[in-house]
């Protein structure tokens, strides 16, 4: 919605159907619960609607034909009291080429509907701009806002007199702070204007980005758990930065009810201070016993092991005394040394606990195991930094699982060839290359096994799977190292022939592939004579677009099928 009628002298309006969406895409957009649209702003300011969804028309109370005849009708449905603000926001977005965002009312058949409109500019050729956007009905949200405002006054009177810092926060959206009592602002020093949202509070209370991210994750996880269950967040202890630069120890808890969350902050700073001496003396012991199933270690400032827990033998096969006094580089993989050294520097520079460093260590048997470590700075009784203390866990099994999952996402499990998604992703990566000024020539073979269903039906799927494995191996061995091959269907394969420009070369390669594929296959006492049909397309003849090459190769393959199968055909 970027065509203000009041600005027609600057933004003349016209429509076009020169950029139609595909039928499938249009059907998809029409099923969305939001209104979608796309409108082009030409250099002379004229607007051309490329698309509006049925839902968009329904929300505006407009007929498609009427809108196409007069696009200015889109402005008429804007509530008169909101129109100027919409026009101004629209003009700024057009001039700056920045995303357009606006909330306001539509007036359709004397009924007001609150909507939120957002669109993003996309540069087209010839200095044209296409605005693609959505329109969402937010009437229910606005009603909730009104209801909250009605109840806020009584809630404030109740909470204002509490002797503990308290805030009321809106759930969902950006987490607006609806109210904070006087004790909250006295304790932390921030004014209501400085804490309009939960995110603003996080930025003030936790100035360190890393610490902030950890607290956010912990808090939102607790919030989600509370919303799904008891409606309460159990007390959690945090350090909170105040406006005057001090840091307070605070126990935070919350109650969730009817779309809002009442958060309480209990200041335990003085209590924590009385425990500081005891905590300091217990620090080393507590860290050592923490995560007792892990390897506990200490390093001096030079990176030499000073202590290693006995379970080191279980995890890595070393007795602790074998590594004591040695530099950690003796067991860390050379490729991971830089990361480990940077991690140590972060521990010392921040003087705080650091975590989740993943690296490889050498087992006594020579194998490399993946570990993850967390570490804290270590001080002597005078507070002087003397090294670091940490724990390390073996995550080799998780890493192996991640590797398997990555391979499964890329390669066909049965044949070991690229799967359909991965193969077409590689083709998409080639698209930019083929569109270059002097693109390399490529060929594409579409290979389909003939009568493969009969093998499954007659001899069983196990035999069929084995045939596919054998033929996939033959196909890969018949191709050049520069070629690419993937299984894109049950018995369908695609092969990319890089650097092939002429029909003779492409046909020769395809014939060689066919000859290898049709060699007899013996499975125990079973002997099979495979057959396949191969279609070929060339970028030098059939165009640079990958989709066109696939289509031409597919059609050529079907001509082989129609002419008796088991052959090769170059696309017309």
Structure overview:
This protein is of the alpha+beta class and 572 residues long. The protein has four domains: 5-137, Beta-Lactamase, CATH 3.30.450.20; 145-273, 2-Layer Sandwich (Beta-Lactamase); 287-399, Beta-Lactamase, CATH 3.30.450.20; 411-570, Alpha-Beta Plaits (2-Layer Sandwich), CATH 3.30.70.270. The chain has 21 helices and 23 strands. Strand 12 (295-300) and strand 13 (305-308) form a beta hairpin. Helix 17 (452-459) packs antiparallel against helix 18 (461-478). The model is unreliable at 2-20 (pLDDT under 50).
The main pleated sheet reads as: 6 strands, mixed
Instruction: Indicate the mean pLDDT.
Output: 84
Gap between N and C termini: 46 Å
Integer tally of domains: 4
CATH topology of the largest domain: Alpha-Beta Plaits
CATH-wise, what's the superfamily of the largest domain?
Reverse transcriptase/Diguanylate cyclase domain
Helix content: 40-55%
Poorly predicted runs are: 2-20
């Amino acid at each position: 919605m970027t065509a203000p009628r009041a600005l027609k002298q600057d933004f003349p309006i016209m429509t076009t159907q020169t950029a139609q969406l595909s039928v499938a895409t249009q059907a998809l957009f029409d099923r969305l619960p939001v209104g979608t649209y796309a409108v082009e702003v030409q250099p002379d300011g004229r607007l051309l609607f490329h698309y509006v969804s049925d839902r968009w028309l329904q929300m505006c109370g407009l007929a498609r034909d009427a809108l196409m005849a007069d696009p200015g009708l889109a402005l008429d449905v804007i509530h008169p009291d909101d129109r100027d603000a919409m026009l101004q926001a629209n003009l700024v977005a057009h001039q700056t080429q920045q995303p357009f965002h606006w909330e306001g009312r539509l007036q359709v058949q004397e009924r007001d509907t609150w909507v939120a409109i957002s669109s993003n500019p996309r540069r087209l050729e010839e200095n044209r701009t296409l605005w693609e956007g959505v329109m969402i009905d937010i009437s229910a949200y606005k009603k909730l806002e009104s209801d909250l405002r009605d109840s806020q006054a009584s809630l404030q009177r109740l909470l204002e007199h509490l002797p503990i810092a308290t805030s009321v926060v809106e759930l969902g959206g950006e987490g607006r702070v609806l109210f904070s009592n006087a004790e909250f602002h006295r304790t932390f020093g921030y004014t209501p204007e400085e804490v309009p949202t939960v995110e603003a509070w996080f930025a003030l209370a936790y100035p360190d980005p890393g610490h902030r991210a950890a607290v956010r994750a912990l808090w939102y996880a607790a919030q989600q758990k509370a919303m799904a269950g008891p409606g309460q967040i159990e007390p959690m202890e945090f350090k909170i930065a105040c406006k005057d630069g001090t840091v307070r120890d605070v126990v935070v808890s919350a109650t969730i009810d009817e779309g809002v969350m009442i958060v309480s902050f209990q200041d335990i700073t003085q209590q924590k201070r009385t425990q500081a001496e005891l905590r300091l003396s217990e620090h080393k012991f507590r860290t050592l016993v923490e995560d007792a199933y892990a390897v506990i270690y200490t390093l001096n400032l030079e990176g030499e092991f000073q202590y290693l827990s006995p379970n080191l033998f279980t995890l890595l096969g070393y007795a602790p005394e074998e590594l004591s006094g040695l530099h950690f580089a003796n067991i860390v993989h050379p490729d991971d040394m830089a990361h480990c050294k940077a991690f140590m520097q972060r521990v010392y520079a921040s003087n705080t606990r650091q975590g989740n460093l993943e690296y490889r260590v050498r087992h006594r048997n020579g194998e490399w195991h993946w570990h993850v470590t967390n570490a804290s700075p270590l001080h002597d009784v005078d507070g002087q930094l003397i090294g670091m203390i940490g724990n390390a866990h073996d995550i080799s099994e998780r890493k192996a699982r991640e590797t398997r999952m990555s391979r499964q996402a890329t390669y066909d499990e049965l044949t070991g060839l690229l799967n359909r998604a991965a193969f077409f992703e590689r083709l998409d990566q080639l698209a930019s290359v083929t569109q270059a000024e002097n693109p390399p020539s490529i060929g594409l073979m579409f290979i389909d096994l003939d009568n493969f269903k009969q093998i499954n039906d007659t001899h069983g799927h196990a035999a069929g799977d084995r045939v596919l494995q054998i033929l996939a191996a033959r196909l890969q061995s018949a191709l050049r190292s520069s070629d690419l091959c993937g299984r894109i269907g049950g018995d369908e394969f695609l092969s990319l022939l890089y650097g092939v420009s002429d029909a003779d070369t492409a046909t020769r390669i395809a014939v060689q592939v066919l000859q290898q594929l049709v060699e007899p296959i013996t499975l125990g006492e079973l002997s099979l004579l495979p057959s396949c049909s191969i279609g070929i397309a060339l970028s030098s003849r059939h165009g640079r677009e990958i989709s066109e090459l696939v289509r031409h190769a597919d059609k050529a393959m079907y001509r082989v099928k129609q002419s008796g199968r088991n052959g090769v055909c170059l696309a017309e």
